[in-house]
Amino acid sequence: MQKFILGKKNQITLLSAILIASGFISELVFHNEEIAIWSLVIASILGVAPIIIQAYQALKVKVVSIDVLVTIAVLGAFFIKNFEESAIVTFLFLFGAFLEQRTLNQTRSAIKELTEMAPESALKQMENGEFEEVEVDEVDVGDILLVKTGAKVPVDGTVLTGEGHINEASITGESLPVNKKKDSKVFAGTILENGTVQIIADRVGEDTTFGKIIELVEEAQDSKSEAERFIDRFSKYYTPAVLVLSAIVWLISRDIELAITILVLGCPGALVIGVPVSNVAGIGNGAKHGVLLKGSEVISDFSRLDTMVFDKTGTLTIGNPKVADKEIYGDTDKVDEVLAYLASVEKESDHPLANAVVEYIGDTKPYRVDKTDVVKGGGIVAEVDGHRVAVGNVALMEEENVQLNQKMRADIDKFEVNGNSLVLTAVDGELKVLMGIRDQIRPGVKEDLQRLKRLGVKNLVVLSGDNQGTVDLVARELGLTEAHGHMLPEDKQAYIKDLQDKGQIVAFVGDGVNDSPSLALAQIGIAMGSGTDVAIETSDVVLMNSNFSRLPHALGLTKATARNMRQNIIIAVGVVLVLLASVFFSEWMNMSIGMLVHEGSILAVILNGMRLIGYKLRY
Amino acid sequence: MQKATIQLETLTCPSCMQKIENGVKLLDGIDKESLNVSFNSSKVKVNFDEEKVTIEDIEKAIDKLGYEIKKTQVKAL
Q1: Would you state the pLDDT for residue A582?
Q2: What is the pLDDT of residues A444-487, one digit of tens each?
Q3: CB-CB under 8 Å, A100 with B13
Q4: Which residues of A touch B64 (CB under 8 A)?
Q5: What does the DSSP 8-state code read for residue A313?
Q6: Among A40, A60, A285, A519, which one is least packed by beta carbons within 10 Å?
Q7: Nearest residue of A to residue B64, measured between CA atoms
Q8: A322-438 is classed in which CATH architecture?
Q9: Do the Cβ atoms of B40 and A280 come within 8 Å?
Q10: Closest CA in chain A for residue B26
């Protein structure tokens, strides 16, 4: 019976609306008092039934819920034969709940979309060698699974056989399909766009990268800030307090009407729901745009950010050095030959600078390289095509007795000032090529940093282990406010601590491995490591696929979300204050209007929260 | 001890959480510290002593409060 009534809440709401309408029509149009009263009585009884059940269930577990307040209020109205109010209040309460459910689902939709991307079934190899469809929960580590075109990869695993292209947007935010063949790693929740592969399960369920992302978002949306925990504690005592207040008012004034009006007006609603609604909508927006925010505490801190500290290599720069400057000396028509020697020698090495050189020169005639001698801290000396070729730094050239003229020395100085690492090439004791290699700034970083500035970040600081010249150069090019070189991880940590002692809120953006102490220390740690797991675990704000360009959106979003929460708190508190004041100081306030305003304020905070779903950075 | 994760129908009223919390807490063999009812994801997470209380008891307690259970997962701790 209880279940039946609760299940039919929507129908009851509709019926009670019709009854109330016909009640008023019969009174105002047909002047039939009797039918009007009976309509309202039936509407009240119908409407209060589900509320009474809910109130009873709450009282059974010792909770004074809103249902209890409303039930008492309605019974009171019935007692003083004010059927108009009892009918309207129950209707508004039910209808409000209906609208709230609808709109709340909206605010949660982004996160729901994410969790619904979780794989549900898998084709698992059985003992007889056949593949059978099973629930994804039944897959264990080590199982062999078949993934067909169009299917979701059910677990994190390694490709055993087959080949195909996988869309990894759900993990990395990058929608360009990635080629996967034998020994490639595949991730749960990604989609095989073409081909067929067999994989072996490495991690299943909550341990997969996708599982971790979902868990993180689910926990984040329900994580509570200090303010929210206060509101929770407060509301536990608030409802009983309203009950007591109304009883006292009744005892003193003997005015049932006033007492029950207080019951309705005192219902907490918007206050309790306002902050979680902003939270879930904001986090949902982030999840859709490749930004995972770990809870409302993070939102609050990040939105009030003073200083953003960046690591250089791999964060502001690509972390993949390239040849940026070049000078040729001596015979210009022999250049190709010299470059071919150089490339042949450098191919022997896997030093990052050597890779940059080989990549820069491209395809050339390959020469046989003999008598290769790697000079530690200097470079390589080898014999190519009958010539002695030395490739390395200035120290190596000195060791090889290569003469450097004034122009060469000037070039070397200039290259160093520009933040280059140098690779000199000498053939038979004569300097032929000077190359300056430096790390490239990530495309778009400059614009992103400007957006951050416009969003109100006061200081943008770069800290790096590189020499001061290189760091200054990057800072000038990107328009950063401060740059410090020669920083060891512990120096970076001390720098952040210093800022925090001055009362600043600091975010650190860096490599998830080297800089983990700084990431942990800063109020907001953002790891850029390409290993998604590390980034997810150590970051307070996770940028999917370490996408730097998501950073301004993340900051703008947290600011909008924090603002939204404040607005909701103001709406909620304001409404309660206005209602309580008008009960004592105005004539027009009654139970129905009180309920209308109360439900209206709940809808107002939900609708306000919903604005965050569509939030986009404007600049 | 076992750990249960119970997915409920969408929770809309904040007082639901209090009701569910108290309703489950009143059962014997519940680790009260671990109990967490989350509003937005509409989930109940709780550790319980399987010798004192069964997962069915917990489900029944929530169901009696008027909340539909969509999916339950139990893991040994």
Answers
A1: 83
A2: 888 999 999 999 898 999 988 777 877 888 888 888 999 998 88
A3: yes
A4: 57
A5: I
A6: A60
A7: A57
A8: 3-Layer(aba) Sandwich (3.40)
A9: yes
A10: A61
Q: Tell me the H-state helices in A422-467.
A: 445-454
What is the structure's pLDDT at A248? 92
Long-range contacts of residues A9-13, Cβ cutoff 8 Å, at least 24 apart: A9/A50, A9/A94, A9/A97, A9/A98, A10/A98, A12/A46, A12/A47, A12/A49, A12/A50, A12/A94, A13/A47, A13/A91, A13/A94, A13/A95, A13/A98
CA distance B65 to chain A (A): 6
Are A58 and B15 within 8 A, CB to CB? yes
Alpha helices in A295-382 (DSSP H): 296-303, 335-346, 352-361
ipTM reported for the complex, 2 dp: 0.82
Sequence spans of domains, chain B = 2-76
Instruction: Specify the fold of A120-213.
Output: 2.70.150
Q: Check A67, A156, A301, A311 and give the catalytic one.
A: A311
* Residue in A137, A222, A239 nearest the CB of B40: A222
The CA distance from A428 to A436, in Å, is 21
Residue range B2-76, CATH number: 3.30.70.100
Average the pLDDT over A399-428 and give the result: 84
Cα A103 to Cα A92: distance, rounded to the nearest angstrom: 16
Is-catalytic flag, A311? Answer: yes
Contacts of A146 (CB under 8 A, 6+ apart): A123, A125, A131, A196, A197, A198
Check residue A534 and give its pLDDT: 66
Q: CATH number of A300-313+444-546: 3.30.200.20, 3.90.1720.10, 3.40.50.1000, 1.20.1250.20?
A: 3.40.50.1000
Q: pTM of the full predicted structure?
A: 0.76
Contact A222 B38 (CB under 8 A): yes
> How does pLDDT run across B10-68, given as a tens digit for each residue?
887 767 788 888 889 888 888 888 888 888 788 899 999 888 888 988 999 888 888 88
Chain A closest CA to B51's CA: distance in Å?
Answer: 23
pLDDT bucket at A513, cuts 50 / 70 / 90: low
Count of Cβ atoms closer than 10 Å to residue A163 Cβ: 14
Handedness of CA A27, A30, A33, A39 (dihedral sign): negative
β-pairing, A178-180 vs A156-167, is: antiparallel
d(CA B64, CA A610): 32
Distance CA A151, CA A196 (A): 9
Q: Which candidate in A6, A9, A10, A63 is best for mutational testing of the B interface (most B CBs within 10 A)? A: A63
In whole angstroms, give the CA distance from residue A576 to residue A565: 17
Q: How far off is chain A from B27, nearest CA to CA, in Å?
A: 11
Residues in B touching A285 (Cβ below 8 Å) = none
Residue of B nearest to A283 (CA): B40
B64 vs A63: CB contact, 8 Å cut-off?
A: no
Closest CA–CA distance from residue A273 to any residue of chain B (Å): 7
Matching residue, tokens 């009007």: A36
d(CA A385, CA A343): 13
